[in-house]
Specification:
This protein is mainly α. It has two domains: 69 residues, no CATH class; 219 residues, MetI-like (MetI-like fold, Orthogonal Bundle). The mean pLDDT is 81.
């Protein structure tokens, strides 16, 4: 286990370094710059601001400066939000994103698994076809389509829920963004759970269990559900990171002050440090959740337990 964790730590660090390098140079290659909005300032002041943010240095020196600070946990100051560090902005937006993502995951995972298992129990039946049609629709509609449709139905047409806004403690503000985040993920989880259960029920060890005369509910409870969840676990690593860091589009549509909105505003204003801070946070969460998934594999199937 120690060797496995060390190997994963090294690969995770190399992955984050590659992510940092790619995002750094791709952002610099995009047209425009963080000081474009300051073009009306005198050249001396603009030069002083460039020196303050190290933008007057060669690109390779800027990269080494940023990478060195990032290794120490310093993501630098924001170019757009004067006086704020990127870590402060992420810390301010992360609670809202974590709340939305956590609720969406709590909704999508159990319902998706239940729908997938129900469809897999009798493949080709009307129930399977109905659930397959629903999940195909959910997969085909991304959340930037689902969110406006939910607003149109529940806020504009029915007037049941607010169309946007963020009021601490107001559960009504959470319903539509959580649904917009959860529904596409629910569809993916249901399809993966269905495929996993169908493969498991056709496995030789399940045929042997049926030959012993076990009733259907015991077949699923004792033998089938653990290996059937393996495809869902494989998907949960990046999906959980995406949900917990918030959806860029959903937070923009509903006016939620999460890190997704900071990412959008940072990209529009060429706020290099803010965009890279969110990207590194997202990459770190993917690495950590994938590690957790590998450890959960061993709990569901001892044959996959890391040595």
């Amino acid at each position: 286990m120690a060797v496995f964790l060390l190997r994963r730590a090294v690969s995770g660090a190399l992955t984050l370094l590659a992510l940092l390098t790619l995002s750094f140079f791709l952002l610099r290659a995009a047209p425009g710059g963080p000081l474009d909005r300051e073009r009306s300032l005198p050249p001396s002041i603009e030069a002083a601001m460039a020196a303050q943010y190290h933008l007057d240095q060669p690109l390779w020196r800027q990269y080494l400066h940023y990478a060195g600070n990032a290794l120490r946990g310093d993501l630098g100051p924001s170019f757009q939000y004067d006086g704020y560090q990127v870590t402060e902005l992420i810390a301010a937006g992360l609670p809202a994103s974590l709340l939305l993502g956590g609720l969406a995951l709590a909704l999508a995972l159990p319902l998706g698994v239940a729908l997938g298992f129900a469809a897999a129990w009798r493949p080709g039946s009307w129930r399977d076809q109905f659930i397959a049609a629903l999940t195909m629709t959910g997969v085909s509609l991304p959340n930037f389509v689902v969110a406006p449709l939910l607003v149109l139905l529940f806020a504009v047409t029915l007037g049941m829920l607010p169309a946007g806004g963020w009021r601490p403690g107001a559960w009504q503000d959470l319903v539509l963004p959580v649904l917009a985040l959860a529904l596409p993920q629910l569809a993916y989880v249901a399809r993966l759970a269905r495929a996993g259960m169908i493969d498991t029920l056709a496995a030789p060890f399940m045929l042997a269990a049926r030959a012993k005369g076990l009733p259907p509910h015991l077949l699923v409870w004792r033998h089938a559900w653990r290996p059937a969840l393996l495809p869902v676990l494989s998907y949960l690593g990046p999906a959980t990171a995406a949900l917990l860091t918030g959806s860029v589009v959903v937070e923009q549509i509903f006016g939620i002050p999460g890190i997704g909105r900071y990412f959008v505003q940072g990209a529009l204003n060429r706020d290099y440090t803010l965009v890279m801070g969110v990207v590194l946070l997202y990459g770190t969460l993917i690495v950590l959740f994938n590690l957790m998934v590998d450890l959960l594999y061993g709990l569901l199937d001892p044959r996959l337990r890391p040595a």
